[in-house]
Each structure stands twice: as C-alpha cells, then as structure tokens.
C-alpha cells in the first residue's frame, strides 16, 4: 500500500518519525511534513507565493522517503498528492498529533483538516491524534494503531476523513467507540509583553474548560478511556435549519 504521511507538528516530530518507520515495514511511505510546527493552522492553504520542498536524506535509513515543506499541513497534502500523481496514495494519514483532536478542537486542528483536505481531493484518509505525557508515549500509541490498522482501514472512505484519537499508555484504551463530536472549549488567555518595533506582542495560551457534554460524544468517551473514531466532512451545512431559512427566503 502507498501511504502519504503528513502532520502539523513538523517533520522532526517523534510521532510522525516513529509512525513512518513502523508503516514502512509493510508499506511504501512518503512523508511530506511542515518545516516547523503548524499547530492550529486548520485548513489554511498557501496561494500566490512559493512554498519550499526539501529532501531529508536521513529518513531513508528507516525505510521511507521524507520531505520538509515550508507550508501548512493542507499544503503538504495537496503537494504530496500532486507529487504522487503517477502512483497515487492508497491512503493519507495525518499525525500523530501530540494533543487529542476531539470535539470543537477539530475546527482549529491542522491534523484533522489535513485529513479533510485529502478527502476533498478524493483520497481515503485518517487523522491520528493522542495525548502523550512524553515523547516515548508515542511508542505505545503507534503500537496500538498498527495492531488496529486493518480495523481503521475497513472504516475508511474517500467521502470523509476518519478522525482517530488514542489514549496514552498511562490511561489505556478499553476499546473503541464510533461517536459524534462533542464540545471542547478553552480558557483563552492572552499574555501581553512589552512593545517592540512590530507592535505589542499578544500570546494566546489556555487550558481545556470543564464542559458538560452528552454521554455519546468523543470528548466523553475519550475521557472514559476509549479510543474514539469520528467521520469528518468539510460540508459545514446545518441541515436542521435549512427548511426554516428557506421559508424566510
């Protein structure tokens, strides 16, 4: 199987390097990942200006090809599939992200939106995220993903992106839950620093807030120790309101 592997944390991320090495044992893997961290870039795309592709030679010793790209996660998918046009990927995997992409987080997630870009382009895709306490936690997540790879693959379709979140080894994974998205909000805090020539710097930080969610959603199941699976689509239409709005037209 030909796999295009991207992420939003950058090509040097422990998660993407470890996953690429394991997948390359049985599959043909091409990594195209951002030159630097692009977390929170959502579905941003670079238009009208160049993005720079550079080969990373030391990856070949682990059995896969790797390129860094001075663009966004979605850029990595779009350019990656163009480069593989003669032999298109059978699957696009985005991750492993170093924070879970559950609930409302997927709105901002470069990981989730890279997988959705692959779906828009007509490819099967998986967005893979976790909650590692430290880099070595990725080893457990990678092992869990590889053991369940055929299961995830059986759920894939070019009509949607499969959003998968796996807990770390400390929490463990009781099993899987196929579930809709929940709500995950953050305590937005801007740290203000002294003025520079560029202006007054504001740095956004914050932690997840305690939000009451329904029982059957990814936020709730993930917190209970289950790996979650949610099909995602780029169609943001709120169909439940269509009739009401049409009556006003």
Task: Give unreliable regions as ranges.
Answer: none
Oligomerization status of the protein chains = single chain
Task: Name the CATH homologous superfamily.
Answer: Survival protein SurE-like phosphatase/nucleotidase
Broad shape: globular
Q: Roughly what is the average pLDDT, rounded to an integer?
A: 96
Kindly provide the name of the CATH class.
Answer: Alpha Beta
| β-sheet strand percentage | 15-25%
- The assigned structural class equals alpha/beta
The separation of the N and C termini measures 49 Å
Output the CATH topology.
Stationary-phase Survival Protein Sure Homolog, Chain: A
Question: Can you write the helix and strand succession as a string?
Answer: EHEEEHEHEHHEEEEHEH
Tell me about the largest β-sheet: 9 strands, mixed
Total individual domains: 1
**How many DSSP-defined strands?**
11
> Helicity, in percent?
25-40%
CATH architecture: 3-Layer(aba) Sandwich
């Amino acid at each position: 199987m030909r796999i295009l592997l991207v992420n939003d944390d950058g090509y040097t991320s422990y998660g993407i390097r470890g996953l690429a090495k394991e997948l390359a044992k049985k599959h043909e893997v091409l990594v195209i990942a951002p030159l630097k961290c692009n977390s929170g870039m959502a579905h941003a795309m670079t238009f009208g200006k160049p993005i720079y592709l550079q080969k990373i030679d030391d990856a070949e010793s682990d059995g896969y090809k790797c390129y860094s790209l001075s663009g966004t996660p979605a850029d990595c998918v779009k350019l990656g599939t163009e480069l593989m046009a003669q032999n298109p990927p059978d699957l696009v995997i985005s991750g492993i992200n170093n924070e879970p992409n559950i609930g409302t987080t997927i709105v901002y997630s470069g990981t989730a939106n890279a997988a959705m870009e692959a779906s828009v382009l007509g490819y099967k895709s998986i967005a893979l995220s976790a909650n590692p306490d430290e880099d070595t936690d990725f080893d457990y997540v990678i092992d869990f993903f590889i053991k369940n790879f055929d299961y995830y693959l059986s759920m894939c379709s070019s009509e949607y992106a499969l959003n998968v979140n796996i807990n770390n080894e400390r929490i463990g994974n009781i099993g899987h839950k196929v579930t809709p998205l929940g709500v995950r909000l953050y305590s937005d805090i801007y740290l203000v620093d002294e003025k520079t020539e560029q202006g007054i710097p504001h740095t956004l930080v914050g932690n997840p807030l305690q939000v009451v969610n329904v029982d059957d959603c990814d936020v709730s199941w993930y917190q209970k120790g289950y790996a979650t699976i949610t099909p995602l689509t780029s169609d943001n239409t709120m169909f439940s309101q269509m009739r009401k709005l049409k009556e006003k037209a």
